[in-house]
Amino acid sequence: MAKRFFLTTAIDYPNSRPHIGTAFEKIGADVQARYRRMEGYEVFFLMGNDENTIKVARRAQELGEGVQAYCDRMAGEFKEVWAALGISNDDFIQTSEARHHAGCRAFIQKVYDAGYIYKAGYEGWYCDGCEAFKTEKELEDGKCPAHKVPAVRRKEDCWYFALSKFQDKLLAFYEANPDFIEPESRRNEVMNLVKTELLDVNITRSGQDWGIRLPWDERFTIYVWFDALLNYITAAGYGSDMDRFGKWWPADLHVIGKDITRFHCALWPAMCMAAGIAPPKRVFGHGFVYIKSGQETVKISKSLGTLVEPMDILRKFSAEAFRYYFLRECPFPGDGEFSWKRFADLYNSDLANNLGNLYSRVTGLVGRNFGAVLDGTAGRRAVLPVGEISRAELVARYRQQVESLHYNQALATLWQGVLVPANQHAEKMAPWSLVKTDKAAAAVVLHDLVEAVRVAAVLLKPFLPKLAATLYGGFNFAKPFEAVSTADALESPILPEDTRVIAELVGGKVAPLFPRIDLEADTKE
RNA sequence: CGCGGCGUGGAGCAGUGGUAGCUCGCCAGGCUCAUAACCUGGAGGUCGUAGGUUCAAAUCCUGCCGCCGCAACCA
Asked: Which of A2, A89, A185, A387: CA 20 to 30 A from A378?
């Protein structure tokens, strides 16, 4: 029986380019996808863009582009960024695609047939500029703050989803599935919401050209959330390939931003129940990235000029450095901050000085003193230098932390449990001196240090895949890197031949993996 | 009293009853294989605050102060 893991990220509005906040979510989901693959799961990792919104249509018009052409162009730009970051998604759905339209209409028809959608009038303040209803709170002196024109009273028919009918079922569902909403604080928030004010929601708009039409009333298009959430099932085959859908659904994990928790934890499971399919198994609401400028911590915002594009960082450094910063510095369940100063500090201390330098010194010692081959290590099982916790405990802790999406802690575990002890061991045994008096003993020390590099590569595989491959590929380990799983960190392998460095050595040394950053010289805009 | 979360050395975080810990930064030594990297030691905290429970509280309870999130289209 194959183990399967279906995970998703939120789909993004393509009316502006992705920034480091959206990238944070994709990286976090990517680690989980890579980890699950490494653990032997058959993985379906889904991402996409949310295109059936009036904002997108308007943006396309502003640019004088066809809406579909605009969506396709933006989808291309998003995919380019995700590829540059090493995101390993298996599919990328655009909600303007035929498969989504078909699945969406099939789903909503099912909910309609089940009696959970009804027609009613909606009356409210309407802004012609926004082409949308506004709440009393959004208006300033009866005017729309964006367009400065008075809102008009308007009444129109629309279709409602009877969300309120699902109050008891949702609460029972949360009780039965305590891990459904994570982290814990989000769970309390949603449960309180469902207990107190679960209102029916308007799920249609009228007079729109762009969007998906109601199957039974073509005058209406389906309003954002009722359409967007469905990407999770339409991409899995709902409405087009039900066998495939049955294979993947329910999703094992939805990775989303904390701001849209309510839609995923209340509306979405209710929609599933209404359509007769199982709700997803787990929703994880991650924190946000803020920008630190001077003493202030501010929101990422185009108008504030605090927008940092992933490509800015990627061009200057590397995808691996980018991934490391956000995964190590920002706790995934909570909020984090970005600043170039902090980026440089972390990069230099963790990646250049600690990890990169360990690799350099180990390969260098083997290269220059042993002609790259550690004689006599064939058949020997290396001993991993460890710190305060044992090797087994280290791996168990790592697993628990990765599976619960506490990535910053998992990386701390790796550094404290493997890399720091390795550098300490090197210092204590001083193989550079030992080699002059007892070459065989020095070979043993280096063999153990190589093991530390190997374990680091194994545990780094979901986090920094390219770097991990480079580290691992620096030596003649028998097992192909693609086949490596977490369990390979538990025990040292016994090689039939002597351990040797196969990375390219120039003058007995490797090129630095992470050249140190000089903040002054490198990050000036 | 709308609901919820948070408050630990300069910064960022662990730590849910038993001598306060990690990373960065700072200071002083050591080493010199390595990317001026690495290793050791040190300074720096009345764990927001005031009470309570307990032999023992950062940890459990209560009040207060401060910051933040949510209150239906916001990554």
From this structure: A387
CB neighbour list of residue A113: distance below 8 Å, 6 or more residues apart? none
Q: Are A286 and A24 in contact (CB under 8 A)?
A: yes
Taking the stretch 156-195 of protein chain A, residues with Cβ within 7 Å of any atom in nucleic acid chain B are 163, 185, 188-189, 192-193
Which stretches within A287-430 are classed as H helix? 310-316, 319-329, 340-346, 357-370, 391-403, 407-414, 420-429
Nearest C-alpha neighbor of A237 from the set A111, A110, A103, A104: A103
DSSP string, A331-345: -TTS-EEE-HHHHHH
| Closest alpha carbon to A449 in A467, A466, A434 | A434
Confirm whether A167 is domain-assigned: no
Q: Residue A293 has what pLDDT?
A: 67
Distance, CA of A174 to C1' of B2, in Å:
22
Does nucleic acid strand B have an atom less than 7 angstroms from the CB of A331?
Answer: yes
ipTM score assigned to the predicted complex: 0.88
Q: Over the stretch A140-194, which tens digit does the pLDDT of each residue have? A: 556 665 555 666 777 778 899 999 899 889 988 888 888 888 877 777 778 878 8
CB of residue A365 closer than 7 A to nucleic acid strand B? yes
Residue A401 lies in a domain: yes
CATH code where residue A514 lies: 1.10.730.10
Q: Are A457 and A513 in contact (CB under 8 A)?
A: no
Question: A359, A425 in Cβ contact below 8 A?
Answer: no
3-state secondary structure string, A264-294? HHHHHHHHHHHHCCCCCCCEEEECCEEEEEC
First to last CA, chain A: 54
| CB of A21 within 7 Å of some strand B atom | yes
Hits for CB < 7 Å against strand B across A residues 283-312: 288-290, 299-300
Residue A453 CA to residue A457 CA, distance in Å, equals 6
Q: Is the CB of A361 under 7 A from strand B?
A: yes
Q: A187 in a domain, yes or no? A: no
Which residue do the tokens 């802690």 mark? A409
Which nucleotide C1' is nearest A9 CA?
B75
Looking at the 3D structure of chain A, how many domains does it have? 1
Question: Domain range for residue A463?
Answer: 340-522
Residues 111-150 of A, Cβ under 7 A from nucleic strand B: 135
Q: Which of residues 208-237 of A touch strand B (CB under 7 A)?
A: 223-225
pLDDT tens track for A389-399: 899 989 998 99
Span CA (A415) to C1' (B37), Å: 16
Backbone phi, psi, residue A10, to 5°:
-65, 150
Examine residue A447 and state whether it is found in any structural domain, yes or no.
yes
